[in-house]
Amino acid sequence: MRIILIILLFTTALIGQADKRGNNWVIGRHLSVSEELMELDFSSDSVKMETFMSDHDMADPSITTYCDSKGELLLYSNGCSIYNRHHEVIADGADIFESYDLIGLCPFGYTGTYEGVTFVPQPCKKDIVHLINLDLDIEESEFVSRKLMRTTIDISNPDNPLILEKNALINEGRYESGTVYTTKHSNGLDWWVCLLQLNSSCYDCFQLSETGFSEPVVSCTGTNWGTVENFTGVGTGGFSPDGTTYIRFNFTYGLNIYDFDNLSGTLTHREQIFLEEEDFLGHLGAAISPNSRYLYASAQYRVYQFDLHADTIEHSGQIVDTLDFDLQNNHRFRISRLAPDGKIYIAGFNSPAGLHVIHKPDLEGKACNVEQLGMRFPEGVVHLAGLPNNPWYGELPDTSQCDSVDAVTDPISSSFSSIELYPNPSHESILLQLDLLHKVEGISISDMSGAVVASKSYKIFLTDWLTIDISELPIGIYILTLYTEQGKAQEKFIKI
């Protein structure tokens, strides 16, 4: 009997298995009166806080952390140096910028950039992680970043991470000195790294796949961040958990909302919203709820909520909290970040007491429950402004896609006597033919750069035919990989 299956291609994930590589934050400021920093561990139902003695800072807006998939801290960085889980600088991990300390503050843990460093894991290599960072230069009294760089680290020995390559160039250009944000590719495995060109409306997005970083996908759309004289385009923001919305917030240029195509890497400006707030420092905060629906703007004296599902987002705006000036040590609402526990945390510009907390950000209006200083710091811990610039990891990636696609046909088992695709070329669908019984575990389709553009995992016995819908794929040449319990096989096809 001939079996024909129609498969709709979509991104797969391992449902219910959380990826915990962002589950530990390191924050705090080293002062002469206090040498304690703090780890926040989000791996359990309640946040675990532990302090440690330190001679370095993790307080300013460019900090990032990295854990293993179980949530154990492995690395963290303040943009100046890279530290291990024992809070020591790793070998060759100091002075990670090529030309850096322009303002003499690196010994104090201040990079001069805002959210300009982040860790990104290498797809298909569980022991490799990249620290992505911008360099810093001065051009006519303005901070400029000319290089996007990576430092590649081997974490196979958690107690002794090793730098494999330091300050390797990803791309050279003229970039705003900060706001390097990352989100998962639609295939659930690769990553997008996006940043703003200087004095421009153009963004460069780089795809990180198992073969490395792509050439930039350039999107010029919406607000030009260099039109107001003497006002920088530095801002804060990032991606929604589902990777389909990008936000960028700056007092001068407003709250800007973009649609992001996490398959192609293109941005499209959707809306610009100005809030009636005063801000002379520029780094206001913005974060999106776990369900990717509600956008929160933390704007000094007020916290705003906007519904991203609204036809006009600005019209959905409402104030969900106002700063309580009577609360001791309460400081203004500034940089905000969605944490692994599903809550949004907000730092002040100078926050010796703690962080503000949005406890239920998936709920509309004041039901979101903003608690000012809802997280109190232990005595002795002092913080300044930053929260870790970590991506939203969500669920564990489907690593079945990680087999190399270098060979066009790579039968691992001799049980494959043939694999054929036809018609080839095709426009709407292709038939995959097998002449023996196989337990099929999945398929993936990759473009010629090796980037997976569609995939499906399942368990089913297949005797002879598989019908695959390719109508949504762009015209081009692709490699289809078939995974079975006996091995895998690959074949090229052409979409016309």
Note the beta-strand portion.
Answer: 35-45%
Which regions contain 5 or more consecutive residues with pLDDT less than 50?
1-16, 404-417
Overall shape: globular
Helix content: under 10%
- Identify the CATH homologous superfamily of the largest domain: YVTN repeat-like/Quinoprotein amine dehydrogenase
* Gap from first CA to last CA: 31 Å
Question: Can you tell me the number of structural domains?
Answer: 2
CATH class of the largest domain: Mainly Beta
Summed over residues and divided by their number, the pLDDT gives a mean of 83
Round the Cα radius of gyration to an integer and report it. 24 Å
Write down the CATH topology of the largest domain.
Methylamine Dehydrogenase, Chain H
- Summed up, the helix count is 0
Coarse structural class = mainly beta
Q: Total number of β-strand segments?
A: 36
- Major sheet description: 5 strands, antiparallel
Specify the CATH architecture of the largest domain.
Answer: 7 Propeller
Output the keywords.
496 residues; mainly beta; Immunoglobulin-like; Methylamine Dehydrogenase, Chain H; 36 strands
What order do the helices and strands come in, and which of them pair?
Elements: E1 6-7, E2 24-27, E3 36-41, E4 48-53, E5 64-67, E6 73-77, E7 82-84, E8 117-121, E9 128-134, E10 137-139, E11 142-154, E12 162-175, E13 181-184, E14 191-196, E15 202-209, E16 212-213, E17 217-220, E18 236-239, E19 245-250, E20 254-261, E21 266-273, E22 285-288, E23 294-299, E24 302-307, E25 318-322, E26 336-338, E27 344-346, E28 354-358, E29 370-376, E30 420-422, E31 429-433, E32 438-447, E33 452-462, E34 465-469, E35 476-484, E36 487-495
Parallel strand pairs: 1-34
Antiparallel strand pairs: 2-3, 3-4, 5-6, 6-7, 8-9, 9-11, 10-11, 11-12, 13-14, 14-15, 15-16, 15-17, 18-19, 19-20, 20-21, 22-23, 23-24, 24-25, 26-27, 27-28, 28-29, 30-31, 31-34, 32-33, 32-35, 35-36
